[in-house]
Amino acid sequence: MFPVNGATPDAGNYPYKRQLYYAYKNPPSQAVKDFLGYATSSEGQKAMLAGN
Asked: Can you say whether the dihedral through the CA atoms of 19, 50, 4, 12 is positive or negative?
């Protein structure tokens, strides 16, 4: 962790955050659908927040 002005990355006021976007061709392939399904699932969200 790298604190900035006393705020750590898990704090709501941490200044260095970014949104993550996925770009894909429409219609999405089955592999893309499977990945997006995992990425937006509770299990996938937990994995991203854990940094895995």
From this structure: positive
Only one residue has tokens 């970014």, namely 18
Please write the tens of the pLDDT for every residue from 4-41.
888 888 888 888 877 788 999 999 999 999 999 999 99
Q: How far apart are the first and last CA of the chain?
A: 15
Rounded Cα distance between 1 and 46, Å, is 18
Positive or negative, the CA dihedral 19, 41, 11, 51 is negative
Specify the pTM.
0.58
Which residues neighbour 14 within 8 Å (Cβ) at sequence distance 6 or greater?
A: 4, 7, 8
DSSP 8-state secondary structure symbol assigned to residue 4: B
